[in-house]
Amino acid sequence: MRRGRHRPPRQRTPGAAPAHTTWTAPDADHTPDADRAWRDLNAVSLLTLFGPAADRHLATSITSQFADKAGALVFACLLHLAGASNGARFWWRFTAGADHHVAEYCLFLEHAHCGEYDDADHWRAQLLHHHFEPTLPCNDRATAPLLIRELIGDVHPHITRPHHPELGDVPLPQPPLVEQLRHLTSLL
């Protein structure tokens, strides 16, 4: 199994058609290829960040000492797009543990991308158990905005990484990250 940092999210060429316009369904017949899983994971992450209340969810998560699962999902997606895949996995697992099905879908796609098929199958089973259909919570896949790589790096100064003796370094959002998210999403 491959671990560690993953390649950064790809940016579509403006005006270019996406490679596919439907979500990868977590059916029991196959695991998506790595590239398709990666593109879907980026699209879910972008749509999450551009959700109507993403900034409020992130703010609530920070003020509630990270008890808001919607805010934890926003933070995980932001970490993923910023290239902090280990931190994204941590927060997706946290959120999936609170029964958030989009976080389970993100984990399914992320593990499929990495070739970690046993882990991808675990999350696929969870999604099938919940009768998860990506179109319902994620909307139309073709509506995912484009990522501007230069802007996403501006989030790193607003993330601390305190060391936990059992968990290792755990990324935590700081209050200025909410305004940075608002700024980021207003530019795209």
Structural account:
- By secondary structure, the chain is mainly α.
- A hairpin with a 3-residue loop joins strand 2 (163-164) and strand 3.
- Mean pLDDT is 85; it is low at 1-18.
- It is globular, with a radius of gyration of 15 Å.
- Helix 1 packs antiparallel against helix 5.
- The longest helix has 16 residues, at 34-49.
- It is built from nine helices and four strands; from the N terminus they run ααααααααββββα.
- The strands form two sheets. Strands 1-4 form a two-stranded antiparallel ribbon. A two-stranded antiparallel sheet has the order 2-3.
- It has one domain (34-187).
- Helices cover 52% and strands 4% of the residues.
In short:
Helices cover 52% and strands 4% of the residues. The protein has 188 residues and is mainly alpha-helical. The strands form two sheets. It has a two-stranded antiparallel sheet.
How would the blueprint of this fold be written?
Elements: H1 34-49, H2 54-63, H3 69-81, H4 85-97, H5 101-113, H6 117-129, H7 135-138, H8 149-152, E1 159-160, E2 163-164, E3 168-169, E4 172-173, H9 176-187
Antiparallel strand pairs: 1-4, 2-3
Helix pairs in contact: 1-3, 1-5, 2-3, 2-9, 3-4, 4-5, 5-6
